[in-house]
Specification:
This protein has helices at residues 2-14, 20-41, 51-63, 68-87, 114-122, 131-144, 148-152, 182-193, 197-210, 219-232, 237-244, 249-252, 254-270, and strands at 159-160, 165-169, 175-179. It is mainly alpha-helical. The chain has a three-stranded antiparallel sheet with strand order 1-2-3, with no helix packed on it.
Length: 274
């Protein structure tokens, strides 16, 4: 049973492109079912599963106090799992086809009113550690209606501050463009402005020390290394100019001299008549 579940979860991830959260939720529902089958019925093969067994399992879960919405998630997981197995002839017939989804009462979602939202946001202390970050996150959740997973996966390059828009990848890897409110943009800009050049310098120095590097490491040294390594590995000088943003290629040509120095050093070290 577990091998069949693993194959099904890979199918959801690779072929269907469903979210990691959905995969984990479905895997949990199916693994709990497989465990129940093994312990209560000594069944470890999906071919041995029939409709009465599924109904008994769901009734058992209901007796434990599981809500109708949770039962519905289990039913959906079982139905798509056995439909998958049937389509690949891993079971003779789909035992979950006749399972009915439980009726769920619809409730209006809880909300905050505008005054409560304003109070919530304004009470975030931006002077404490990570305060600006937290304000930016919560402003964005409210301003753009993002899911928590979408916020966690947001990247700076997906923001257009001039247009006040953000590109978001949501469920099923679907991409959409969402407006960002002025307050959220301001909060995000305030957070980003704390990442000063001095702070970046400190971060580079800290990690250089942690790596045990004796050389004087500083941020621009990495830029120099970037260009030199590209050139040393055959990159075109014009391409390096574009990547570095140099207006004049003469500025980029300094790296040809660096590379020549390296070539001379190699020649002196290894040529018998150098």
């Amino acid at each position: 049973m577990e091998n069949a579940i693993d194959s099904f979860i890979r199918f959801l991830a690779v072929e269907r492109g469903l979210s990691e959260n959905y995969q984990l939720s479905t895997q949990r529902s199916l693994s709990e079912f497989a465990h129940w089958c093994a312990v209560k019925k000594k069944i470890d093969n999906p071919r041995a599963v029939a409709l009465p067994l599924l109904s008994e399992y769901l009734a058992d879960r209901k007796r434990t106090g599981l809500s109708a919405s949770s039962i519905k998630l289990i039913v959906v997981a079982l139905k798509i799992f056995f439909r998958f197995l049937a389509s690949r002839s891993a079971v003779e017939s789909d035992p979950a086809e006749a399972l009915a989804l439980p009726r769920i009462e619809r409730y209006l979602p809880e909300t905050l009113n505008e005054l409560q939202v304003e109070q919530f946001l304004e009470k975030i202390d931006t002077k404490v550690s990570h305060g600006l970050r937290d304000r930016a996150m919560i402003e964005l959740l409210y301003a753009s209606g993002l899911r928590i997973s979408e916020l966690a996966n947001a990247r700076l390059e997906n923001f257009n501050f001039e247009e006040r828009m953000v590109r978001v990848t949501g469920k099923g890897n679907k991409t959409r463009i969402v407006p960002v409110g002025r307050k959220a943009c301001e909060a995000l800009a305030s957070y980003l402005s704390t990442l000063t050049t001095a702070r970046i310098w400190q971060i580079v120095k800290k990690h250089a020390r942690h790596a045990g590097l004796e050389k004087n490491i500083y941020p621009h040294l990495l830029r120099h290394s970037f260009a030199t390594h590209l050139l040393g590995n055959g990159a075109d000088l014009r391409i390096i100019q574009e990547m570095l943003g140099h207006a004049d290629i003469s500025t980029t040509q300094v790296y040809t001299h660096v590379d020549q120095q390296r070539l001379k050093a190699v020649h002196r070290q290894f040529h018998p008549r150098a």
